[in-house]
Amino acid sequence: MQCKQFKKCGACRFQSDEYEKQLAYKQNGLNNLLSEFSKVERIIPMENPFNYRNKVQCAFYFDYRKQKCSSGVYQSTSKRIIPIDYCMLDDKGADDIIISIRKLADDFKLRPYDIKNKSGFLRHVLIRKGFKTGETMVVIVTASPVFPSRNNFVKALLKRHSEITTIIHNVNPTDTNLILGEQSHILYGKGYIEDILCSCTFRISPASFYQVNPVQTEKLYNMAIEFAEIQKDDAVFDAYCGTGTIGIIAAKKAGQVLGVELNEKAVNDAVSNAKKNDIKNIYFIEADATKLIDDLAKEKEHFDVVFMDPPRAGASREFLLSLLKLKPKKIIYISCNPKTLARDLKILTKKDYTAEKIQGVDMFPFTEHIETVVSLKRKD
Ligand code: SAH
Question: For ligand 1, atom 1, which residue shows the shortest CA distance?
Answer without folding.
Answer: 241
